[in-house]
């Protein structure tokens, strides 16, 4: 029963999101901005990993860490560093 309710919520949200994208005529500019932000997030993690400032820390580049930095920006890199240092 719960699986069916969650599936209906997912389908409903996808339909509403599709309606917003196609009714507002957003175009493809948002894809360009999203791609730029993903590249900048990966670059921020890369700089932290290979700068040599913190030699004992390494933040892996995977979808979870990149999306964390994508959502939070550069403070997200600080958050990941703080988590990594406290987990050591």
TrEMBL record:
InterPro entries per record: BofA
Keywords: Membrane, Transmembrane, Transmembrane helix
Segments crossing the lipid bilayer: 33-52, 64-83
Record Pfam families: BofA
Name this polypeptide is given: Pro-sigmaK processing inhibitor BofA
